[in-house]
Amino acid sequence: MGERGGGGCCPPMDLLRSEPMQLIQLIIPIEAAHQTIGYLGDLGLIQFKDLNAEKSPFQRTYATQIKRCGEMARKLRFFREQMSKAGLSPSTKSVTRADIDMDDLEVKLGELEAELIEMNANGEKLQRAYSELVEYKLVLQKAGEFFHSTQGSATAQQREVGSRQIGEESIETPLLLDQGMATDTSKQVKLGFLTGLIPREKSMAFERILFRATRGNVFLKQVVVEDPVIDPVSGEKVEKNVFVVFYSGEMAKKKILKICEAFGANRYPFTEDLGKQAQMITEVSGRLSELKTTIDAGLLHRGNLLQTIGEQYEQWSLLVRREKSIYHTLNMLSIDVTKKCLVAEGWSPVFATKQIQDALQRAMYDSNSQVGTVVQVIHTKESPPSYFRTNKFTSCFQEIVDAYGVAKYQEANPGVYTIITFPFLFAVMFGDWGHGICLLLASLYFIIRERKLSGQKLGDIIEMTFSGRYVILMMALFSIYTGLIYNEFFSVPFELFGHSAYACRDLSCSEASTVGLIKVRETYPFGVDPVWHGSRSELPFLNSLKMKMSILIGVAQMNLGIILSYFNAIFFHNSLNIWFQFIPQMIFLNSLFGYLSLLIIVKWWIGSKADLYHVMIYMFLSPTDDLGENQLFVGQKTVQLVLLLLALVAVPWMLIPKPFLLKKQHQDRHRGQSYTILQGTEDSLQVQENHDSHGHEEFEFSEVFVHQLIHTIEFVLGAVSNTASYLRLWALSLAHSELSSVFYEKVLLLAWGFNNVFILIAGIIVFIFATVGVLLVMETLSAFLHALRLHWVEFQNKFYEGDGYKFYPFSFALLGDEEE
Q1: Pairing of strands 341-349, 237-238
Q2: According to the model, what pLDDT value does residue 454 have?
Q3: Dist. CA 334–CA 343, nearest whole Å
Q4: Contact 653, 580 (CB under 8 A)
Q5: Are 598 and 636 in contact (CB under 8 A)?
Q6: Range list of β-strands (E), 470-603
Q7: Which of 361, 368, 374 is nearest to 39 (CA)?
Q8: Angle at 560 between CA 562 and CA 634, to 5 degrees
Q9: What does each C-alpha distance from 385 to 120, 379, 407, 564 come to in angstroms?
Q10: How far is it, in rounded angstroms, from Cα 40 to Cα 329?
Q11: Which of 379, 437, 737, 820 is the most buried (most CB within 10 A)?
């Protein structure tokens, strides 16, 4: 849910229940319809109902206008893609509404698109010609070098052979010379050749296929091109080789041409004449220079055009999105029989009535309509949407609740309590004021830069963290608070608020924390005394404190959930839930676990060493036995017997009466409708509707009873399991503290003990990465998920149904950048 209700601060009391809603009907003159919907979109406080749900999108009145807006949106997306490719971005200047005619905008966008497409096509042709000339130049250079070196070596070989023949004349030599001179020159074989470039990754396969296709009757020479070249076809940089293939015969040539085509080899003409080669290189270089100048001028012109588009892109995009959303909303309205008015129905908050009337009045004046819009409230039994006025601080906490389920209309909303209880439960598990400061700095970074970061596209994880920046802020503050209570700073205790109240009796207790100590000063003023950290001989006091506090917190929060169910029952006038749900649930929960919480507090108060596990177990197994040394107050056995009896009575109290009373209510309702006096047409119609919808429904007593049985069993077993589930507060707090101690003692202190600078630096680096990666990331996520579970399951299931639906008003402020 977005941050609705403005950026100002809204009191948390606004979140207790959803805003009162009303279903209104608007009868809008057709000439003022567009202006009216536009003003209501600016207001953003009406959720319109679709009165044409049976029609397809193509059958609706304004389908043509929506298609037209969709086409303009497509052109704008095309412009954005082109700007992105050119490395440009739309202007981020504040967008103000301007009076731009949609017809003029449509024509302008069409002209700009045609111009840009033409420029792209011309640019692609020029770029392709330029790439081909670059490749041709490479072929001329590389193949020319090959032919030049080959001709030089051939000439040298001929001279060497001639000199040998003159110097080594024999009897047979004239015969051979005569035979060679007598050979018919018409029978000499003329070799052809092809030149071009081929991607380097395909060169080996190209050589193998040539050899197999021609059975080895070709000669292939490849030369590596040092720098990648732009391929004329794909437009991408590719590493290539220049090749020269010598062949004999037309059949071999045809095969080579097909293979070149199959491998994507680009072929270029080449001459053996060295003079012509130099002339062609000069001509190609001149054409390359001309093309380069032309391409640069085209890119400059295209960049100027895209920059001009970028300056107005956001304004055009906003206007098109507004128009499309207006026509989409108009398609949800029905046309009356006279075809002069549009009829709209929608939900709006009661507080917005005056604002809606003002917007309708302005729309009538601006559209020069002779008739104003008629507004009337429709009375309906349909459940309204739930709307909570939130701001940027409270919206993230409301999202935590909505992720479980949206509150039913006027149902008690857990969001207002979640603002405090969620970060507090997180901090109970995460309590360390050193780690809390790290979280605080991270949250403050996002909060200070929120205006800049909110307009940027962040990654998924960063986006999620940024959206929950105020939740992290509260979690950090509560973690610092609980960390001060636990007296842990990266697992190290400090005497921040004074000296420890305990000291060693003698030197034998120097390594202990709870054995051999005597109290020498006043009690440590705030939090846990530093001396209570680190005992391994028995359960540390701090861990015992955390375990018992987990139970106290859990029972308190579950009681809060049951109390909220009482307020729900009062609000919805459900007396059965008060008598047969709230009261027995409070009795059952507090007879057992409320009593356990009381024992914990009394034990702390009087400093007793009673075994509370023994007390609770034998409260059920042997309720009449004497408590002995486990007795904490006078009359405890009697109190336990009474509480046990109340807990046993509460179970059938929840189970049995309610189904029978529901059956009696159904019978009375049916009987009352059968004999209702008809006082008028509207009343008779209403009674008939109720009679049709409820009177003939059969009351399935067995289903109701089974449902109540399941509900009772779920609560009884849930009371036990939910209380045990709150012990995760103690378990995760212990795990966090122990992990922090391990990193401090086994990494940082161990590295310090080597008295080596390099080992110390390595230890500090490992300690930082371990603290950030494990304690500040993984442990934060773990504590967050466990706090989430405690709210969703242990707390909210006591009172929260969460079967409502959100209020989604028609608002231009909620329009996204993407087309739907």
Answers
A1: unpaired
A2: 82
A3: 5
A4: yes
A5: no
A6: 502-504, 517-519
A7: 361
A8: 95
A9: 50, 15, 9, 21
A10: 11
A11: 737
Q: Which positions ≥6 away from 164 have C-beta within 8 Å?
A: none
User: Which residue has 């051999």 as its token pair?
Assistant: 516
Query: What are the domain boundaries of the chain?
Result: 122-153+190-285
Q: Which pTM value belongs to this model?
A: 0.78
Give the pLDDT confidence score for residue 537 in this predicted structure.
Answer: 37
How much of the chain, in percent, has pLDDT values that exceed 70? 86
Confidence (pLDDT) at 13: 53
Cα gap 734→150, rounded to integer Å: 82
Residue 799 CA to residue 407 CA, distance in Å, equals: 11
pLDDT tens for 353-412 read 999 999 999 999 988 888 888 999 999 989 999 999 999 999 999 999 999 999 999 899
Residue ranges in 580-635 assigned as alpha helix (H): 583-589, 595-606, 612-621
What whole-number distance in Å separates Cα of residue 716 and Cα of residue 721? 9
Q: How many whole angstroms separate alpha carbon 132 and alpha carbon 63?
A: 48
Is residue 466 within 8 A of residue 453, CB to CB? The reply is yes
Roughly what angle, to the nearest 10 degrees, separates helices 33-43 and 274-330?
Answer: 90
Instruction: Please calculate the CA angle 47-51-55 and round it to the nearest 5 degrees.
Output: 125
Which three-class secondary structure state does DSSP give residue 48?
strand
The two tokens of residue 476 are: 């950090």
> Regarding predicted confidence, which is higher, 9 or 744?
744
From residue 11, give the alpha-carbon distance in Å to each of 16, 390, 455, 585, 595: 10, 9, 27, 31, 36
Q: What is the pLDDT of residue 513?
A: 52
CA-to-CA separations, 320 to 313, 386, 532, 580, 677, in angstroms, rounded: 11, 30, 67, 57, 57
Integer Cα distance of 753 and 324 in angstroms: 70
d(CA 243, CA 268): 10
122-153+190-285 carries CATH number 3.30.70.2520: yes
pLDDT band at residue 161 under the 50/70/90 scheme:
low
Quick one: tokens of 701?
């007593």
Amino acid found at 318: L
Tens digit of each residue's pLDDT (9 = 90 or more) over 17-65: 899 999 999 999 999 999 999 999 999 999 999 999 899 988 898 999 9
Provide DSSP, 385-407: PB-----TTHHHHHHHHHHH-PP
Burial of 661 (0-12, 13-18, 19+ CB in 10 A): middle
pLDDT digits 0-9 by tens, 548-563 = 999 999 999 999 999 9
CA 613/CA 724 separation, integer angstroms: 13
How far is it, in rounded angstroms, from Cα 440 to Cα 512?
34
Chain center to CA of 611: 49
How far apart, in Å, are the Cα atoms of 812 and each of 12, 66, 626, 743, 808?
26, 16, 72, 52, 12
pLDDT beyond 60 at 534? no
Q: Which residue's structure tokens are 């950026």? A: 7
- Residue 414: which of 556, 565, 613 has the closest Cα? 565
Higher pLDDT, 514 or 178: 514
Indicate the helix (H) or strand (E) that contains 522: none
Q: How far apart are CA 561 and CA 414, in angstroms?
A: 9
Positive/negative CA dihedral, 696, 701, 705, 707: negative
pLDDT in tens, 240-292: 999 999 888 888 889 999 999 999 888 988 887 777 888 888 899 999 999 99
pLDDT in tens, 683-741: 333 333 444 444 456 788 889 999 999 999 999 999 999 999 999 999 999 999 889 98
Contact 736, 479 (CB under 8 A): no
Distance CA 254, CA 558 (A): 87
Among 503, 596, 512, CA closest to 548: 596
CA 368 to chain centre: 46
Return d(Cα 266, Cα 274) in angstroms, integer: 22
- What's the maximum distance between 2 C-alpha atoms anywhere in the chain? 147
